Description:
It is built from 9 helices and 15 strands. By secondary structure, the chain is of the alpha/beta class. It folds into 2 domains: about 5-115 and about 300-330, Medium-chain alcohol dehydrogenases, catalytic domain (Quinone Oxidoreductase, Chain A, domain 1), CATH 3.90.180.10; about 130-270, Rossmann fold, CATH 3.40.50.720. Strands 3, 4, 5, 6, 7, 14 and 15 form a 7-stranded mixed sheet that branches. A hairpin with a 2-residue loop joins strand 1 and strand 2 (about 15-25). The two termini are about 15 Å apart.
Amino acid sequence: MESFRACVVREQNQEVSYSVENTYPDLLSKGNVIIQTAYSSVNYKDHLAVKAKGGVIRNYPMIPGIDVSGTVVSSNTDAFQVGQEVLVTGFEMGMTHTGGFSEYVQVPEEWIVPLPKGLSLRDAMVIGTAGFTAALSIDALENMGMTKSEQPEILVTGASGGVGSVAIRLLSQSGYAKITALSRKKQEEKLLLSLGAKEVLYPEDVIPEKLKPLGKQRFQYVLDTVGGNVASALIPQIFYGGSISMCGNAGGIKMETTVLPFILRGVNILGIDSVNYPIEKRSRIWERFANEWHIMDSLCTHEIGLDELGKTFSAIEQGTHVGRAIVKIK
Ligand SMILES: NC(=O)c1ccc[n+]([C@@H]2O[C@H](COP(=O)([O-])OP(=O)(O)OC[C@H]3O[C@@H](n4cnc5c(N)ncnc54)[C@H](OP(=O)(O)O)[C@@H]3O)[C@@H](O)[C@H]2O)c1
């Protein structure tokens, strides 16, 4: 392998900058499998990675990108063969280990999922960490009793974002009919209804001027991607015995609550982590995307190249980004 293109983030005098440049294999973190990247995708965490004090990258220079799909070009393990199509999401990718915004990725075999039959390399990145996290959130809510036979009221927050938009589509495709989308973007109402929401609410519809420990019970299940004041406002509005899955902090990391929703209504908070989700359990989720959830053609996606990463990071920062950005590398 000679030089190859990658997005490289550097820190100098506490200033963080990034550029797409020709770089060399020495920059790649260690691993026993080398993947030639086909696609990556942009997640919320990737936009934090290129910010000063973003809290994602631990050592510079670093290639960001928490997701990758591609073909194995070198392997010293029998577990993966040269020519095999694979994907990696999460673990240390794009944090302490060079990630997916690069023509090549070198990773330990323990992070790799074989691409399931029925999914293309592009499909895998249409889903990416965002879709995988949406699936984990739905799994967690179903484990707490959410079932389509009861057609519960379900609210999805950050609805126009990557996790939120895939979650709405997955829930709808799975047969849930009473899905409400919560979004700040009034202009995206049509899109959210087309993904499968029956109704779209806006922050002013659910966030009261003054938080009360308990409010009117409105939703049996909440799939939250926002955290902050949105989650604080919603917990008192969950029905007796209901649950909220929490995966995100786009709206802040601080939450205000009392114990009352938990001790008087038996409300459950379900924490969702896709980053260190055990490798041996990952294929089951990816197989469901390949065989059960046929959502690929109905998601809100757009394709970009490495040179357009900056525009996407800015859109996420400014709160104007919608859906999933797929990065075509080769
Ligand atoms: N735990 C995990 O393993 C895991 C995995 C993936 C993602 N995440 C987290 O989940 C969240 C969503 O990720 P994503 O990739 O879907 O990001 P994204 O595509 O940028 O979507 C985030 C959405 O949240 C809403 N939002 C953003 N800033 C907000 C604010 N200040 N107040 C209220 N709403 C806000 C927006 O939706 P509307 O404009 O429609 O309201 C936005 O589209 C992020 O916090 C990310 O770090 C966690």
